[in-house]
């Protein structure tokens, strides 16, 4: 029996004004790294990063480590919503 593959689902990537400001303040190299790291999760759901634990009363959040930064986002079937971009070690107090 031949396995059929589904075409990848293209998710829309949403940035709040706060995240957009954080993203713009990063240097070009870091922005490119974050963009490239997010692409597999945003387009096909592959390479989905670790689920963020300890967040109560809200949607399931995921985190992605990109060098010295953490990208926190909500991953739904049709969209990827970026919640926060922060340097490692600063914690997740903002959530």
Report on this model:
- There is one protein chain.
- The protein is of the alpha+beta class and 95 residues long.
- The chain has one domain (12-87): YaeB-like fold (2-Layer Sandwich), CATH 3.30.2310.20.
- Helix content is 26%, strand content 29%.
- It has helices at residues 17-25, 28-43, and strands at 12-15, 50-51, 61-66, 69-75, 79-87.
- Strands 1-5-4-3-2 form a 5-stranded mixed sheet.
- A hairpin with a 2-residue loop joins strand 3 (61-66) and strand 4.
- The longest helix has 16 residues, at 28-43.
- It is globular and about 35 Å long.
- The model has no long low-confidence stretch (mean pLDDT 79).
SSE map:
Elements: E1 12-15, H1 17-25, H2 28-43, E2 50-51, E3 61-66, E4 69-75, E5 79-87
């Amino acid at each position: 029996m031949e396995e059929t593959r589904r075409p990848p689902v293209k998710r829309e990537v949403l940035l709040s004004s706060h995240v957009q400001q954080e993203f713009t303040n990063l240097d070009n190299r870091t922005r490119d790294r974050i963009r490239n790291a997010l692409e597999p999760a945003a387009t096909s759901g592959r390479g989905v990063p670790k689920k963020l634990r300890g967040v109560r009363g809200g949607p399931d959040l995921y985190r992605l480590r990109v060098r010295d930064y953490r990208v926190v986002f909500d991953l739904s079937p049709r969209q990827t919503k970026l919640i926060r971009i922060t340097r490692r070690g600063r914690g997740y107090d903002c959530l």
